[in-house]
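Please describe what follows:
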Amino acid sequence: MNKNIQKLSIYKLFNKSKKYSIKWSSYFQVYEKIFSRYRNKKIKFVEIGVANGGSLFMWKKYFGNKAKIIGIDLNPKAKKLEKNGFKIYIGNQSDKKFWENFYKKEGKVDLILDDGGHKNLQQISTVHHSLPYIKDGGKIVIEDTGTSYVKKEFNNPSRYSFINFAKNVVDAIHRRSPLLKKELNFYSKKIFLVEFFESIVVFSIDSKKCFQNKEVHNKAQNEWAIDYRHNEYFGKLKLKLDKKYGLLNKRSFYRRIIRKIFYKNFIFNFLDNIKIKKIFRELEN
């Protein structure tokens, strides 16, 4: 065990929990990073997959007395934990109706931590059915996303793995860029940030920050900055054109022509891709 992790307050609470629990050692540093600002605040925290309840006691101590700690599990025996002050729901996280009934009773929540069955449908369902009910400033946290790479039992990697779903969410939030020329959808209107950790993916929810992006500039005059992104191929030619005609510094008809010449030419893309493939090979090895 890493000594720095052993010093974390969340890990100490995990060790002292009165009920049995299992976690991966690297998770505690992620917990501290993403959850510390919610401590001692009036929040609703939901954990899917409570087992013996050890982690529920950890969260109760970590977040403080103002927090409402809610557990979800398939095992009816988990209901016994309600005598310790937790609210427990028994149900299937893959079931849309379960989530509808859950949020009808609980209303909106601040944080969801999915430590449930870890199958693609289960993890994806948690995000999809919970997204409308997460308060701005809240998070959906999916644990054990390493199962997206495990063949036995989880049938991954596949096109429909949770990690591929999360990558599609990244694509969706880029709809806010005017460069894509796409309308905002349900995900791009709600998810402000996606964070990837080893075996954990965090979705930060804030609809107020999820607006259509626009290009802005200040009032100062552009003195010398020009577009050099293809400078390695035709830098001298571009510089001569700019010195003679001043075209590259203007948002004009001429600049649009030059952009088309340089940006859409397959030769430049081909040359770039040769270098990129080398980097990809190093990444995959």
The chain is about 40% helix and 15% strand.
